[in-house]
Amino acid sequence: MISVEQLMEKKNSNKALSVQGLTVRYGSMVALRDVDLTIMEGEYLGIIGPNGGGKTTFLKALLGLVPFDSGSIRIFNKKPRETGKLIGYVPQVSSLDKAFPITLYQVVLTGRLGSKLSWFHQYSKEDRIKADEALEQVGIEKLKDRQISELSGGEFQRMLIARALTVEPKLLLLDEPTASVDAQSREKIFSLLHDLNDKMTIVLVTHDLLAVSSYVKTLACINEKLIYHGGKEIDEQVVEHLYGCPIDLIAHGVPHRVLKEHEEGIS
């Protein structure tokens, strides 16, 4: 006879992420309120929303980096702190010091540290093999000895993706991966993510509306609350509720203006 626990495990076996009633506060400020979101394995989800709307906080909650007031998070049916190497994370470039004297290869290797961080850590042969494989995946293996201060924006971003790939994750989280890169680099990054999606589930936070309409499979809109989750074509009412003003629809991979022209006399 199959137990209740086995039935629940089978039911959840194809869920990459299940979030229920998630509320996160920073002191008296609410960053996320009562968010429910479920995505299945193999999904490629784009998350959009205004600055300060809670998108980065949402990723950090999934990683177990911020405590939450209420709700639950399950990633492949595990709590965030129990996921081990199931998750790869690409942080915002703006949060990193590009002037730090370290090579691209050394940065990528740090993806293998996990909780083993120490001043005298010795990387294993397997660590180096996984780092080399990740560099080849993102196409920057020839730059491995270059100082990070010498990298272009696109090269720096692909380095961070390679670092996240060293653990061979089942879920890849990315926070603004195309911010401050040129159009050619952006295309390379999204082409890379498209290929990676064949092997892993992807959750992408972005302000790049072209990315939303051209690359992701589904869309979530967050502004403290989850305002929308579904297909990447969303109606004007949803987007106006999200941003607080009328904007053009996002659809069919066609780049649109972000803001509509305002009425005459309105600045």
Radius of gyration: 20 Å
Q: Kindly report how far apart the N and C termini lie.
A: 68 Å
CATH architecture, please? Answer: 3-Layer(aba) Sandwich
Q: What ranges have pLDDT less than 50 throughout 5 or more consecutive residues?
A: 249-267
How many separate helices? 8
Mean pLDDT: 85
Shape: globular
CATH topology: Rossmann fold
Task: Give a structural overview.
By secondary structure, this protein is an alpha/beta fold. It has helices at 4-11, 55-62, 104-109, 125-138, 153-165, 183-196, 209-214, 236-243, and strands spanning 15-26, 29-40, 44-48, 70-75, 87-90, 171-175, 201-205, 218-223, 225-231. The strands form 2 sheets. It has a 6-stranded mixed β-sheet, sandwiched between helices. Strands 2-1-4 form a 3-stranded antiparallel β-sheet, with helices on one face. Strand 1 and strand 2 form a beta hairpin. The chain is globular. It starts with a helix and ends in a 24-residue tail after the last helix.
